[in-house]
Amino acid sequence: MRQRREYHIVVLGAGGVGKSCLTAQFVQNVWIESYDPTIEDSYRKQIEVDVRAICLDLTLQEQSNLPRCGQGFLLVFSITSLSSLNELAELREQIIRIRDDENVPLVIVGNKSDLEEDRAVTRARAFSVSQHWGNAPYYETSARRRANVDEVFVDLCRQIIRKDITAAQAGEQEAYSRRRERPIRHGRRRRREKQRCNIL
């Protein structure tokens, strides 16, 4: 039986960028026509990524009270609002400060790609932000048309998995190094003790 991993993903962005619509499409395959403040702000979903069974805890947040427990972050803006993109920079800085890690798994999401005629953020501008943030993955999504919805969550899961594997390998290497050091120290002590006996 395969072990199921649990990851906590936080969906962040300014109000009105489509965080709830994006998440509801991913979890429930439903399109929310109009915003309802009573909509859940947390979800759970089981998925499979590269033959790994994963249970996702999803939390929707705006600017304040960033959770410390998020393992990956979707930073969502609307392609129809330049200010919503600009707000992501402060959110990213807060995440890095809280997590004390420059390489936190994250994906930049330009939502509402179906509103091309109202576009205020060019693709070039969004890609520039992506490059400035260490080539963070950038996707344009449409919650209405379900375009690239699954892809952003899967990409983020892959980043978390890679980070987990790297951390596990580093831990194993450190444990192996410690095990190798111990016998060497004991051996040296024994040799010293024998030498002392011989001298006496």
TrEMBL record:
Top-rank lineage group of the source organism: Eukaryota
User: Cross-referenced Gene3D superfamilies, in alphabetical order?
Assistant: P-loop containing nucleotide triphosphate hydrolases
The record's listing under SMART domains reads: RAB, RAS, RHO
InterPro entries in the record:
P-loop_NTPase (IPR027417), Small_GTP-bd (IPR005225), Small_GTPase (IPR001806), Small_GTPase_Ras-type (IPR020849)
Q: Name one GO biological process term.
A: signal transduction
Entry keyword set: GTP-binding, Nucleotide-binding
- GO molecular function terms attached to this record: GTP binding; GTPase activity
Query: Which ranges are annotated Basic residues under compositional bias?
Result: 179-194
Gene Ontology CC terms? membrane
Stored Pfam families: Ras (PF00071)
Q: Region annotation Disordered: residue ranges?
A: 172-200
Q: Which NCBIfam families match?
A: small_GTP (TIGR00231)
Q: What is this protein called?
A: Uncharacterized protein
Species of provenance: Trichoglossum hirsutum
